[in-house]
Design a protein that fits this description.
Layout (H helix, E strand, L loop, with lengths): L2 H8 L7 E13 L3 E7 L7 E6 L5 H4 L7 E10 L7 E12 L14 H5 L9 H23 L3 E2 L5 E2 L22 E2 L2 E2 L11 E2 L4 H11 L2 E8 L12 E10 L3 H22 L1 H10 L4 H10 L3 E4 H9 L17 H11 L4 E7 L15 E9 L3 E8 L4 H10 L8 H5 L8 E7 H9 L20
Parallel strand pairs: 3-5, 6-11, 13-14
Antiparallel strand pairs: 1-2, 1-4, 2-3, 4-5, 7-10, 8-9, 11-12, 12-17, 14-15, 15-16, 16-17
Helix pairs in contact: 4-6, 4-7, 6-8
Length: 460
């Protein structure tokens, strides 16, 4: 029985007073005739206080309980005489499942995030990280709920791929070749001898495959891990991250922006309504402005701003930027945060970017200079969603691929979809970790990921 089940008992007409709980010791203190033990089972933020009397058969063992030890407690749920909690358990029996040594790395003091990253296998037992990963679980459920309620089909796209979605080349190679004796032909690796008989990589996006399913099933979404071999140690980037990627048939850019805005608002409201206890921790200890910031996202309609107007606002702002805003260049994080936190003070959707800075699959606008792309920017994070209307015209798509130097043979199946019943369609990708950062106020992606994968770091 966990604490949430106990809460349900307390609200029942005839609450059951005999309970069994299992968990880990957070603290223990002794008095003359009792031990006061704080236990947490990970189901929620609060601990359950257990009163262990000197009459218990293994009182001497209980008297030596250490932080981190695992126990099973049978007892009566009673009103607490202390001020810190409403209810406590009067123990009838405590079985010690596992006694942790005194050297247990998590003690009753505040540890730095840097230290806790070095013991990522234990940090979920802290209040902060237990709360982060419960919210991560709840929002995963909320994402599926959002799309299922709207008739989207959940599809599974490949993790191992033979093509580069973005064309950026920052991919992890997958191979079974002997790296101590790599076969070569004409100075190049002979991939014909590899497992797939060609180059294979971990995917940077499920988008291209999801498009194929959208052009068969209608509205679909995929939610899974993606990988980018970018040697970046910023607070916003990781080598392994999760993406939510919906694709919609018969859908233009405007509808795409509508769905992106609706989804962000839905997920933030879901967290406010269903993760209140955990969110309160972040509002107290991480970002005191968090409740107002989240409510602002729920209440305010997102600004929709053409790229050219965004650059104009930035150029005339009088603000000193590390990277000067310039037409034809992508917006930097500092630009995105200025627009959302200083100028508009709300989320912003920037759209119609120059074609020269966007991938080949984005639909070319009639001006032949911009594409029907959109980025959703939010305060505190910057870009949280990137998407576009996809290029459905075969001849335009082939021309764009030629301009970007892509080998069309690797995308023969993608081009086929434009030959056989091509239709207007759109989609986007939501960085799941950035969503968790937005909702918790945590500023480093390493602290919203259970076991982060970053350059030179693959422990655990």
């Amino acid at each position: 029985m966990n604490r949430n089940q106990i809460k349900a008992l307390l609200h029942a007409d005839h609450p059951q007073t005999q309970v069994l709980i299992k968990g880990w010791v957070r603290t223990r203190r002794n008095s003359k005739d009792f031990s006061f033990i704080e236990i947490n089972d990970g189901s929620c933020l609060g601990n359950m206080q257990v009163i262990a009397g000197a009459d218990l058969f293994n009182h001497d063992q209980i008297d030596r309980l250490t932080t981190g030890s695992a126990v099973s407690v049978t007892g009566s749920l009673v009103a607490s005489q202390g001020k810190e909690q409403q209810w406590e358990i009067q123990a009838h029996r405590i079985d010690v499942i596992s006694m942790a040594p005194e050297s247990f790395p998590l003690q009753k003091k505040r540890h730095s995030d840097e230290y806790l990253r070095s013991i990522a296998h234990l940090r979920p037992r802290t209040n902060k990280y237990g709360a982060v990963f419960r919210i991560r679980s709840d929002l995963s459920y909320a994402i599926h709920t959002f799309f299922q309620q709207r008739g989207f089909k959940y599809v599974h796209t490949p993790i191992i791929t033979g093509s580069d979605c973005e064309g950026a080349g920052e991919m992890f190679r997958v191979t079974t070749l002997d790296l101590n004796a790599v076969p070569r032909t004409g100075g190049h690796v002979d991939y014909s001898l590899d497992f797939f008989a060609k180059e294979a990589n971990l995917t940077v996006s499920g988008q291209l495959s999801a498009e194929m399913l959208a052009l068969s099933l209608g509205n679909v979404y995929t939610f899974g891990p993606t990988f980018r071999a970018e040697d970046s140690n910023t607070r916003r980037h990781a080598a392994e991250f999760w993406m939510v990627e919906p694709e919609m048939a018969f859908c233009g850019l405007e509808q795409n922006m509508d769905l992106a805005e609706e989804m962000i608002r839905y997920l933030v409201l879901y967290a406010i309504e269903n993760c209140a206890e955990d969110l309160e921790l972040f509002a107290r200890f991480v970002d005191k402005t968090l409740p107002a910031a989240l409510q602002n996202i729920v209440d305010e309609k997102f600004v929709r701003l053409p790229y050219c107007e965004a650059v104009d606002i930035l150029s005339k702002s009088g603000n000193h930027f590390e990277f000067a805003p310039e037409t034809g260049q992508d917006l930097q994080t500092e630009h995105e945060r200025f627009l959302t936190e200083v100028h508009f003070k709300k989320p912003v959707i920037v759209y119609n970017y120059p074609k020269t800075i966007k991938p080949f699959y984005m639909r070319l606008n009639d001006d032949d200079l911009t594409v029907a792309a959109m980025d959703v920017l939010v305060p505190g994070i910057g870009e949280i969603i990137g998407g576009s209307q996809r290029e459905e015209r075969l001849e335009v798509l082939e021309r764009r691929m030629d301009e970007q130097g892509l080998n069309k043979e690797n995308y023969w199946w993608y081009l086929d979809s434009r030959r056989y019943g091509s239709v207007e369609h759109s989609g986007f990708g939501l960085g799941f970790e950035r969503l968790i950062m937005l909702i918790t106020g945590i500023s480093n992606i390493r602290d919203v990921t259970p076991f982060p994968r970053t350059p030179k770091n693959i422990e655990f």
